[in-house]
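Re: NAP structure - here you go.
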Amino acid sequence: MKKVLIAGGTGLVGTHLSQLLNDKGYEVVHLSRKKNPKATYPTFVWDTEKGTIEAAALQGVEYVINLAGTGIADGLWTTSRKKLLIDSRVKGADLLAKAIKNLAQKPKAYLSAAAIGIYGDRGDEVLTEKSAIGKGGFMVQCCEEWEDAIEAVATTTGIRTVAFRIGIVLSTKGGALQKMLLPLNFFTASYFGTGEQWYSWIHIDDVCQFFLKAMEEEQMEGVYNSTTPNPLTNKDLTKRMVKALGKRALVIPAPTAALRLGMGEMADVVLNSNKVLPKRLEEHGVSFQFPTFEEAVKDIVERGV
Ligand SMILES: NC(=O)c1ccc[n+]([C@@H]2O[C@H](COP(=O)([O-])OP(=O)(O)OC[C@H]3O[C@@H](n4cnc5c(N)ncnc54)[C@H](OP(=O)(O)O)[C@@H]3O)[C@@H](O)[C@H]2O)c1
């Protein structure tokens, strides 16, 4: 049985991906900050701050998937929080690179999450993997340092490395959609600022199927945008969500000034515009299980995934 080590496997994407890989016959093991006696998968412990990792974690592992990192929108971006957001990603990648380098039998590939935040706030510009990365803003800085660390895994270890610049992952279990669904219980839905900013989204099943594809297809290497080919403006997406779910709701704006007041710099997460296309995935000939937003939202809510 082929063994996969998933760092951050307990999170939103990690839990779903672990199930998919388990269903496909892979042996899944997790790398986590703590042991949980009730964990579904065997778990090894690491400490990215101290630079420690359980020696047996990488034993017999064919694929390493790194999804670890402090939640981008889980707390205000204070100086210490910003450091944690970067360190939890960069130090994790560095630690894995060092551990892999020392192995007699190295894994076949290292796959990592990255994020479309690397493009920065780009208005209506169509963004592909060939587009320049953004200029300025913490999201760009964090994502750039993150990708530098992923690239360093490739140079340090010599193994095939893939980085998915993931868009807004649709799920009822966490992330942006879960937060957007809550106000519907009170017959309201909000868009942010002008609502004209582009959101590039993806169904959680598709995010996970592309990780699996990148494990199995050796010609996949480097950076891939992991979004559907159908980005929507924030206002359009909000209206479509309400309609797709057959809800009645007043769609109202959350003004930029109020968002800046409440969230500070972190409001970039909802106000930045990223019209991203999955050019390299399409060139690779992938098909999306959920290319249209309405289908994706309905499926997510119906299945409760
Ligand atoms: N969800 C999205 O919409 C989205 C979009 C773009 C990019 N991404 C990126 O994709 C990855 C997975 O996303 P997700 O939504 O599954 O994230 P998540 O639910 O927040 O899970 C991330 C995992 O990272 C680990 N972690 C948290 N803080 C850490 C720290 N300080 N040091 C080391 N590990 C830490 C945790 O695992 P343990 O508690 O087991 O250690 C956690 O379960 C993340 O890097 C995220 O930034 C997600």
